[in-house]
Amino acid sequence: MKFIDLRSDTVTQPTEAMRKAMFEAEVGDDVYGDDPTVNQLEELSAKITGKEAALFVPSGTFGNQLALFTHCQRGNEVILGEDCHIIMHEVGASSVIAGVQLRPVRTDKGQLDPKETESKIRGVDIHFPETGLICVENAYSNGRVIPLENMKEIYNIANAHNIPVHLDGARLFNAATYLNVQAYEITKYCDSVMFALSKGLCAPVGSVLAGSKEFIDKARKKRKLMGGGLRQAGILASAGLVALNDMIENLKQDHENALYLGKELSTIPGVKVRLDDIHISMVFFTIDTALDDSIIVNEMLQRGIKINPTEDGEWRFVVHYWISRDNVDYIVNSLKSILS
């Protein structure tokens, strides 16, 4: 049975072009720098993000944690949004790998308040840890895109205090699509950036970390320490090249389908959709019903639709390349039937 999978954009399958590229990929030992396909992916990634160099890594969490590990000294403090992905969904890895302390800042739907952020930067005191990094995220885990002006304000504050900024740009190209800008117009407000190839862009594996040449040189050695030296990784990187060259333009359709899904869901009695927060391919909503999450999840599965249960009382449906407008209509009608 072929399922409609709304759990995440991480569930995307590689396209036929990706499968062909993987089959035909020219490979070498990437730890030695000998894999031409990985090298090509890293060069293209650096160009797209306006950075000097880039590094292919196994996952987004790996890329974010490698950034913290490379930017910071053990015992440093990292300032970041209290509801960002690094805090909420990366298994506390920052304490294990980089050995850093996180100092969360309240956000306004993902936006860091510049004044509050600056107030969290540590002064010189024998009792204080040193602020080693500020992390921002765009697009945010709540589906919203952060305005460039906010990113610029945070970056200027960081520069004034000589603190680097890392961007969790797992869905960087969704943000760029929403803002109608090139990716480098977002990444100019950070010193390093991680972006995912394996979400809406459909590559089966991988993310990229980009930054200055000096930063990436350090990160390459730390990637080896973390077990990320993948040897003949060109088989995977080839799909990433297809993702960057061919798949970014499809994100606009995903966003349009997500907005359509949100509007249609909002017509169902008892369903309240955060329509103003549909910036990319994510739809968040609540359901006023006596039905348990497990019942709704199982009933949708019986109709060939995979969904996750609620998190903090909210449902999240994620649209992606493999979900069509006809699929959206079927999804809405299926949920309406279950709730009625």
UniProtKB/TrEMBL annotation:
Single GO molecular function: lyase activity
Cofactor(s) annotated in UniProt: pyridoxal 5'-phosphate
Aromatic amino acid beta-eliminating lyase/threonine aldolase domain residues: 5-285
UniProt keyword list: Lyase, Pyridoxal phosphate
CDD domains per UniProt: TA_like (cd06502)
Residues spanning the membrane: none
Species this protein is from: Clostridium mobile
Gene transcribed to yield this protein: ltaE
InterPro entries recorded: ArAA_b-elim_lyase/Thr_aldolase, Low_specificity_L-TA-like
EC numbers on record: 4.1.2.48
Keyword DNA damage annotated: no
Pfam families assigned to the protein according to its UniProt record, in alphabetical order: Beta_elim_lyase
Family annotation (PANTHER family): L-THREONINE ALDOLASE (PTHR48097:SF9), L-THREONINE ALDOLASE-RELATED (PTHR48097)
Protein name stated in the entry: Low-specificity L-threonine aldolase
